[in-house]
Amino acid sequence: MFGKETYIRRRAELKKLVGNGVILLFGNNEAPANYPANAYSPFRQDSSFLYFFGQHRDGLVGVIDVDNDTETLIGDDIDIEDIVWFGSVDSVSNLASQVGVAKSGPMKELKSICNEALRLHRKVHFLPPYRFDTMIQIMDLLGTHPSQQREAASLELIKAVVKMRSTKEAQEVEAIERACEVGYQMHTKAMLTAKPGVTERFVGGIVDGTARSLASKVSFATIFSQHGEIMHGCPSAAPLEAGRLALCDAGCELDDYCSDHTRTYPVTGKFTQRQLDIYKIVEECHDYALKVARPGVRWYDVHMDICRLMTERLKELGLMKGDTEEAVRAGAHAMFLPHGLGHMMGMDVHDMEGLGQQYVGFDEETQPSTQFGTNCLRLGRRLEENFVVTDEPGIYFIPALIDDWRSKGHCEEYLNFELLDTYKDFGGIRIEDDLLITKDGCRFLGKNRIPYHPADVEEFMAK
Amino acid sequence: MFGKETYIRRRAELKKLVGNGVILLFGNNEAPANYPANAYSPFRQDSSFLYFFGQHRDGLVGVIDVDNDTETLIGDDIDIEDIVWFGSVDSVSNLASQVGVAKSGPMKELKSICNEALRLHRKVHFLPPYRFDTMIQIMDLLGTHPSQQREAASLELIKAVVKMRSTKEAQEVEAIERACEVGYQMHTKAMLTAKPGVTERFVGGIVDGTARSLASKVSFATIFSQHGEIMHGCPSAAPLEAGRLALCDAGCELDDYCSDHTRTYPVTGKFTQRQLDIYKIVEECHDYALKVARPGVRWYDVHMDICRLMTERLKELGLMKGDTEEAVRAGAHAMFLPHGLGHMMGMDVHDMEGLGQQYVGFDEETQPSTQFGTNCLRLGRRLEENFVVTDEPGIYFIPALIDDWRSKGHCEEYLNFELLDTYKDFGGIRIEDDLLITKDGCRFLGKNRIPYHPADVEEFMAK
């Protein structure tokens, strides 16, 4: 939690941007895993609620009446039996005053506030909900069925929140730096644990445990897999095999901010020549983005530059063929790179993704693509100073995709399916770092670099 | 997953017990943490769905038409874009046949099945939902508002499921034994990591990471705290302090079955005399339950025996006074033991708790108590062979409770508040093991005992 001035300032700015009506910012509740009292752990507060109201307790709703310039923190106080089970906690009134909110009230007051606003035909702003309990709450408060709520969400509120959260304050950047430091620990421990015979799950557990020991939790389900070609591959019970690559995509949440890094390395600690040939292309793409990212540059253009660069290099290896421009226009490169170059990162690892990719990553000038692969680019618009973005090119050999395209003849003029067939046991490679867009360029976030240049990887893993 | 005969047999038995109507067993869906695509991880399937349909994928519903003796696995197949992100998975039709289910169909078929059943005024059985997305699903299928669904749930189905899941099959006991072995690893690693200066969170991370490395996940949020008096104390960022006790209550889920153990030990590895005086009472209570648990014994009676034993011993220390029987009848012991002696354990760590404690832990003969403390006893009824229960007495010194009772004069004739005041910095002690009720007694589950006798603890921590 930052100082209370932060939240007072942010809410004042939000009121200015939204202009009128009543803003409801729903905090999250506990999420039952297998019965009501056994919740997923740790509790995850809603990021936008945190951004404006700063409190981590479950069962809270922030209300901002823009027209009357009042703010209320809604929530029920806990009783002595709760204290026995969960320890003492502050009253809702104290939680409110800690973040500069003058009023507080019990949950039943929220119903009155909504009824009154509806009676007076005032606009009630809420963000697109993603928790199903919040959807039921909104249905009961405002009469909108869950299936209609994404459309009923307030565009003014979404745009205001995106505008504010996109540009990171200095204290936010510092928090991300701290999260990246834990990310360094998570990844380097994985690199030192990975060796033939150790299971993927064992290494994944080390990564997760390190996040729990040094931060709050992982920022998303840890990917640690010899099947790097599966974008969200869970660690399996399979032992690591000499000759294969392991891909680790993992990050943490610390003090409400995320890290997100990917490294790919040989299980033995030594790359084969075939692995190195592909790895160096990914490395070159990764470093290219680093060189060109700066305010004013369209991230969509950087993504397309990288698709062309990758196509050029894959042609040199004989895996692609034909005219580079045409191949990329046809989306042939998506055989290897079926995702985007990067995404915003902040309080959410895909920052604000729940508010709608079209508002977070795109604008009038730059619209999302519908082409396979590029449709997964989560950020296209021009970079601005203090954006935090990930730079994460990858090359994958996905057997099901190779077979699918080959059977359809899709992009056959640009792809060498015979050679591709021999790569079906390759896996996939991704290298990912978190970048801060600075005044005139960009820089890595995190004090220590997780090794990624091949020589550094081999040296580190020999330890 | 067990062999398909297991699921065929269980569903046949369920049909016999329920007798008529259409049974819906909802599998779980992914649970979004901070935006729709960022789910809590790992995915947790519903236990009753698993018990009868055995499959771990999200988005499935099991349908058993009792009257027509047909079974259908409902779920939508995934497409090529899903395969890129999540890898290949079996078709729903394959998933069905793996567990001996003849029919399968897409999610939209479920709506037709429900409409038809409602049209014919047939009974549609479902269990009390605890996931909010399932509640929305039930509302959309059957027209029952989420707030009414717990009451609308089928008592016949609840009772049938409780009857079947309460008595563990041999293969289930074996699975629990394996989970207990990982529990041993989790706890002994914590004991060896805990020392002055190391943070609670660091040790908690080791526990969680071990569960992830060797099992699937923790079976509930790990408790590792110097404030053992907070029943569900999260690991904090505070460093461990010489002179204090650390309480670790943790378990894992492995192959769909849980473990759940608690140990309490001195941060330095050496008990003080004051700690030992309290510890030995808890140890004696723990071992008492072990001695008397057998088929036919009421767990409620064992709980009350232990309350009396604890009261006797606390009187010897001067912390309690007056007549033991009267003190326990008045609930004075709940100052020290505000929870129950133990609970059922199986696929859920509090097994079947979501189905309703009154059906799982109680019956006509033994009804739940409403008295503070004993109202937290989750199991009261007579033990049966192949029940799995936890044995977990504890003694806590809860400053807020001491102050609350003292200010009200509650049970003052049985409590020495002056002496209690000097224990406000003590914390709490709990010792917990998992027991299998055998033909003529009970036995510990798990091959290795996590040390708990004081001399064993001290010897182990000296390593």
CATH architecture of the largest domain in chain A: Alpha-Beta Complex
Share of helical residues of chain A: 40-55%
**What is the highest CATH level, the class of the largest domain in chain A?**
Alpha Beta
Overall tally of structural domains of chain A: 2
Detail the poorly predicted runs of chain A.
Answer: none
User: What is the C-alpha radius of gyration of chain A, as a whole number of Å?
Assistant: 24 Å
User: How large is the count of helical segments of chain A?
Assistant: 17
What oligomeric assembly is this protein in? homodimer
Briefly note the CATH topology name of the largest domain in chain A. Answer: Creatine Amidinohydrolase
What is the CA–CA distance across the termini of chain A? 38 Å
State the fourth-level CATH superfamily of the largest domain in chain A: Creatinase/methionine aminopeptidase superfamily
Number of strands of chain A: 18
Mind describing the biggest β-sheet of chain A? 5 strands, mixed
Strand order of the largest sheet of chain A: 6-5-4-1-7
Tell me, rounded to a whole number, the average pLDDT of chain A: 97
- Main structural class of chain A: alpha+beta
Global shape of chain A? globular
Organism (chains A, B): Marseilla massiliensis
Cofactor (chains A, B): Mn(2+)
Family (chains A, B): Belongs to the peptidase M24B family.
EC number (chains A, B): 3.4.11.9
